[in-house]
Design goal:
This protein has a twelve-stranded mixed beta sheet with strand order 7-8-9-10-11-1-2-3-4-5-6-12. It contains four helices and twelve strands. The chain is α+β, with helices and mostly antiparallel strands and 200 residues long. Helix content is 18%, strand content 50%.
C-alpha cells in the first residue's frame, strides 16, 4: 500500500512539474525585476545573426536591452516611451510605448495584467531538459505568430519567437538574477548631446 501511495505522489509531482503553463505562472508570481545575460540568435532561411548582452526587466512596463556584441546599442522602455539608441549611427529613435509593445515579447514579460488576457497559453511538455509553454498573441494584427518559453527549475532559460515572416529568434538566458536592487535612474534615458532624435 505504501508503494502505491509513493507511486501516486511521484506521478502527481511529475504532472505538476511537466505543466509549462504553471511553470510560467510560478515564474511570474512575485517577479518585480529580472536580469540576465542573453545570447540572441536570429534565423531566416540560411541566414543566421547572433548578438549578446544584458537584459533587465522591471515590472510593470520597464525594460533595458544592453546589446554588447557584435556592436553596442540600447533598447530601453521607461513605461512611457521606447528608446532605441545606436551609438555608431549617432541616432536615437523614440516611440510611444503602449502601441509599440502590443503583442511583443516585452509586453509578455513586463505586463502586470493576467497573461492570458493577451495570449492563448498551451502546455508543450518536456523537451531538451526544459518544460515548455506556447503563447499565441490574441491580437490578430500582431507581427508575431507565437512565443515558446523553456523553463528549468521555474526559471525561464530560453524564449523562441516566430514572426509572421517565419523568422525564428532564440534568446537564451544565463546568470539569472531575480529581483536584484537597481539604481533609481536605471531606466532613465537622456539622448547624448549631438545625436539625431527621431520621433515616431
Amino acid at each position: 500500500m505504501r508503494w502505491l501511495m509513493a507511486l501516486f505522489m511521484l506521478a502527481m509531482g511529475q504532472a505538476t512539474f511537466a505543466d509549462g503553463v504553471e511553470q510560467m505562472k510560478s515564474f511570474l508570481k512575485g517577479l518585480e525585476v529580472f536580469q540576465a545575460d542573453f545570447t540572441q540568435t536570429i534565423v531566416q532561411g540560411t541566414k543566421k545573426e547572433r548578438s549578446s548582452g544584458l537584459l533587465t526587466l522591471q515590472r510593470p512596463g520597464k525594460f533595458r536591452w544592453d546589446y554588447e556584441k557584435p556592436y553596442p546599442h540600447l533598447v530601453l522602455a521607461d513605461a512611457t516611451y521606447v528608446w532605441i539608441y545606436d551609438p555608431d549611427l549617432e541616432q536615437v529613435t523614440r516611440r510611444t510605448q503602449a502601441p509599440a509593445l502590443e503583442g511583443t515579447p516585452a509586453q509578455l514579460l513586463t505586463n502586470d495584467v493576467p497573461i492570458d488576457k493577451s495570449f492563448t497559453l498551451s502546455d508543450k511538455g518536456e523537451k531538451d531538459g526544459m518544460i515548455w509553454v506556447e503563447l499565441v498573441p490574441k491580437d490578430k494584427e500582431s507581427q508575431y505568430v507565437q512565443f515558446n518559453l523553456g523553463f528549468k527549475r521555474e526559471e525561464v532559460r530560453i524564449m523562441r519567437i516566430v514572426d509572421k515572416f517565419n523568422q525564428v529568434t532564440d534568446i537564451e538566458f544565463s546568470s539569472i538574477k531575480r529581483n536584484p536592487a537597481l539604481e533609481e535612474d536605471f531606466f532613465v534615458f537622456e539622448p547624448p548631446e549631438g545625436v539625431d532624435v527621431i520621433h515616431q
